[in-house]
Amino acid sequence: MSAECGVVCVTGGSGYIASWIIKLLLERGYTVKTTVHDKTKTQHLLSLDGANERLQLYKADLTAEGSFDSAVDGCQAVFHTASPVLFQTSNPQRYLLFQADLIDPAVKGTLNVLKSCAKMPSVKRVVLTSSMASVVCNRKPLSAGVVIDETWFSDPEFCAKYQPPKHWYMLSKTLAEEAAWKFANENGIDLVAVNPGFVIGPFLQPSVNFTVEEVLRLINGVHSFIILEFVFPEGKWISLYVCAVA
């Protein structure tokens, strides 16, 4: 069956969305090559049906060019979901921290995955898990006549200057997706970007991820609303989305 369905790669395999992508791909008969940063956090993947026969783990570094070559080699499609999530810090050198821990891995990681894909003639399509964050922070007015399409991006300058707090995560996702489209267009890569919002639902990994944790805090009364980082300009984006990975 795996020979008929083909081989695909999923980056950031131990993540919330990636774990579900891997589960569904295995259920449909695909062989899955997934990259992980820490192999000690992959037991939930190894216990999936079909994992023993058709799941392969690779260690990769988002910031190291060529790190994804072996994982992408021979794949027909690549799902790039690996990207850091970081919203705030007490570090006085916060710009340097966000640049090193959030923006650089997001942008360089996306480009490094695409560079690996560009080397492999077997890769027919790349699916990028971007975010609603790369769309909504642009200061453009919303009205009934406004159409949000592929030209609608967050404004990097606004994200970097917004106070308080600076929209560092939004900036990282915006810069990463813009870089992805530029590279894909220049190198003939069939790229699809998915922009989910606040993702909730059942989780496969043993630890609770950020978005589910925030919803639990809302349910338990710790929050009376979703945290301020998700109250986007004009106060219109206090929204909760359920992402069905298919």
CATH domain topology: Rossmann fold
- The overall pLDDT average reads 81
- How many individual domains? 1
Backbone shape: globular
The count of strands amounts to 8
Helix content: 25-40%
Strand content bin: 5-15%
Identify the CATH homologous superfamily.
NAD(P)-binding Rossmann-like Domain
Biggest sheet, in brief?
A: 6 strands, parallel
The value of Rg in angstroms is: 18 Å
H and E order: HEHEHHEHEHEHHHEEHE
CATH class: Alpha Beta
Query: Numbering strands along the chain, what is their spatial order in the largest sheet?
Result: 3-2-1-4-5-6
What is the rounded distance between the termini? Answer: 19 Å
Q: Which regions are unreliable across 5 or more consecutive residues at pLDDT < 50? A: 227-246
Number of helices: 10
Please give a handful of descriptors for the protein shown.
two-stranded parallel sheet; alpha/beta; 246 residues; 8 strands; Rossmann fold
What does this structure look like?
The protein is of the alpha/beta class and 246 residues long. The chain has one domain: Rossmann fold, CATH 3.40.50.720. Helices cover 38% and strands 13% of the residues. It has ten helices and eight strands. The chain has a six-stranded parallel β-sheet, sandwiched between helices. It has a two-stranded parallel sheet with strand order 7-8. Helix 6 links the parallel strand 4 and strand 5. It is globular, with a radius of gyration of 18 Å. The two termini are 19 Å apart. One of its GO terms (molecular function) is oxidoreductase activity, acting on the CH-OH group of donors, NAD or NADP as acceptor. This is NAD-dependent epimerase/dehydratase domain-containing protein.
